[in-house]
Amino acid sequence: MDLDVQYYAHLNSTSVLNAAAKYGRVLGHLAENHVISIRIADKALWNLAEEPWVFFINSIAAPSVKDDTKGRSLHRSNSINTDFVTGRHYDGTGVTVAIADDGFVGPHIDFTGRMTNFATGTGQSHGDMTSGICVGAGNLNPVIRGMATGAYLYTYDIGAYPQVVNAVANYNNHGIVIASTSYSQGCNQYTSDTQFGDNLLYNNPQLQFVFSGGNSGSTNCNYGAGTAWGNITGGYKQGKNVVACGNLDELEVLDPSSSRGPASDGRIKPDICANGRNQLSTNENNTYQVGGGTSAASPGVAGVFAQLYQAYKQLTGASNPPAALIKASLLNTAEDIGNAGPDFIYGWGRINALRALQTLEGNRYLTDSVTQGNNKSHVINVPAGTRQIRVMVYWSDIGGSPVAAPALVNNLNMTLTDPSAGVWNPWILDPTPIAANLNTPAIRGVDSLNNMEQVTLDNPAAGAYTVTVNGYALPSTGQRYYLVWEFRGDAVTMTYPNGAEGFVPGETEVLRWDGQRNLGTYTLEYTVNNGTSWLPIAASVAPKCSALQLAGSEYCFRCCKSSRHPRRFQRYERYIISNYWCTFRTGCFLGLSRLPSSDLGCRKWSGELHDL
Length: 612
Description:
Layout: E1 2-7, H1 13-21, E2 24-30, E3 35-40, H2 45-49, E4 54-59, E5 65-66, H3 70-75, E6 96-101, E7 115-117, H4 126-135, E8 152-157, H5 162-165, H6 167-174, E9 176-181, E10 183-184, H7 192-203, E11 208-212, E12 243-248, E13 272-275, E14 279-283, E15 287-291, H8 294-316, H9 323-333, H10 353-361, E16 365-370, E17 375-382, E18 388-394, E19 411-417, E20 423-424, E21 427-428, H11 435-438, E22 443-444, E23 452-458, E24 463-473, E25 479-488, E26 493-496, E27 508-514, E28 522-527, E29 535-541, E30 547-551, E31 556-561, E32 568-577, E33 580-588, E34 601-604
Parallel strand pairs: 6-8, 6-9, 7-8, 9-11, 11-12, 12-13
Antiparallel strand pairs: 1-3, 1-4, 2-3, 5-10, 14-15, 16-25, 17-24, 18-23, 18-25, 19-20, 19-24, 21-22, 26-27, 27-30, 28-29, 28-31, 32-33, 33-34
C-alpha cells in the first residue's frame, strides 16, 4: 500500500528517511510539512504506526480524476477588459499562470506567443479546454475568448501536481503566481496535502491556487448528511487559503453535478461559483470544443484572478498583489445567489470581476495585524443613499493538522458597530451533518471555523461604522488580515453588451446588468430607429434576475429600474450591435419613457468604427 506518513517537526529529516526506508520504498518527501510518501507491505502497517517518530498516517490521495463564451460576461470579466478604446483593459498582461492537466495543449493560434508547454502527450482535450477558458485570446474566433487574454501560460502534466508541489520553484524560475487545477483527489478530507497547500500559500503570499470544487453533487462522502452534502472532491482544494469553485450555467443556475460543502470540518465550501456548463473553448489543431463541469469553472476564476493581479500592479506599482487581498475582494463582492448570505451550495456566490476591481480602484481595503487577546478598530464612513454595505475580514491561515478539527489555527473575530452603537456579528452557517440544517440560511453569530468573516447591512444609515477585529485565539505571535468593504446603491450598470460587441442576427444572446436585487423589478428595452422610440424586451423582470436571453438582431439596448428611482443616470456608453453603433445611458428610467434625443443616437454602421 502507498501511504503518506507525517513525522514530528523537530526530528532530523535524514534520520527519519532512513528509518522509513526500513519499511519499504520511499516514494517522496515534502520537507515543508514533514511528510514522507512510502510504499509498504500491508502487514507492516501496524509496526510502522508504532514507530516513535510517526505523528500521522493517511493513504496517498486517490489517482487524479478530471472535473470537467458566455462565461466572460457572466463573470463580468468582459467589463474589466472591454472592446472599446476608453474602457478598462485588464487582460492579465504581465501575469503568469500555470495549468496542470492531461497533456500537451494546442497547437492553437489563440495561445500564440503566450504559452510554454511542459506537458507531454497528444490527443487529449481536457487541458486544451481548461487552458482556453483561462487565457484563450479568441484570435481565430473573437466570440470564443477566455478571461485573461494577455496572460502567459505554462502547462504541466497533472501527475504529481507539479503546479502545487513545485510552486515556489515555478515562481522563482518562471514568475508563475496563479495555478488552476481541474482534478480531484478523493473526497472531503483535510489531509497532509491540504496542510501542505495551506502552508505554502501562507508562506508565499503572492501565490494563489484555484481548484474545481468537483462534480460529485450526488455523492455521499461520509460527511454524515447523506448524498448531496459534504462532497468537495479531495485534498488540496479543501484548504483554507485556496479557492474551490462551484459550477453554474450561463443563467446562474447551479449544475446538479456541482459538489457541495461543507468542508470536512464544517467550513464554507465551495468558495465561489462560476460558469462551468457548456462553455466553448479551444481544442487541438486550431479547433474549438464544448467543455463543462467544475473543471471549466476553475480556469475561469483563475483567469479573473490574473486580470485583477494586473489591475493591482498597475494601480499601485507593486510587483504582485497579496493573493489574500484579491481573494477577499472576490468573495466580498460575489453576487449572492441561493439562500441569503453564504451557503454550502454556492459559497459566497457568483464571481463578479467588475465589483472586485472597483474595490481595488476605490481603495476600499486595508491591511493590519492583531495579537492574542487584543483588538484593532477601523472606521468606515458610509455615504448617504447606500442600499447595502458589505464588510469582510480575511486572513491567510497556517496549515492545520490532519488529525485535528477544525482546521482553523489562527482564529480572529470581527464585529461591525453602527452609528447608533448597534453591534453586528458576521454571517455563520450551521454545519450539523443533517441535510435540513445544512440548507438553513445563514444567521449572525461568532465564527470559529472560517478564515473569512462578513457582515452585510441593508439600508444602513449614513455615518461612521467601526470594524473591530479581535485576536481571539492566536497560537502564533500575531496574524495579518485584510479588510475589504463595498457600498451598493440604486445604480444599474449594463455589463453585457458594454460596448463594441457584435451580435449575430438570429442567434440567442444573454443580456446582463448589475443592480440591487431587492429594490423592485427591471425593464429592458431596445430601439431600431435611432432612439426615436424604445420598445420593450421585457418588463417587470424579477429583482433576483440580472440576465435575460434574447434572440439577437439589430438592436440597441438599455436596462432600467421600472419604478422606484426614475431618471437616476450613470454614464454614456457606446455599443456596436450587429449593424448599428449607438450611445445611450444606463441607469434608472420611468416605465418605458425614453431619453431625450440629444442623449443618444444609433446610426447605421458602414463597417468602420468612428469616434463620436
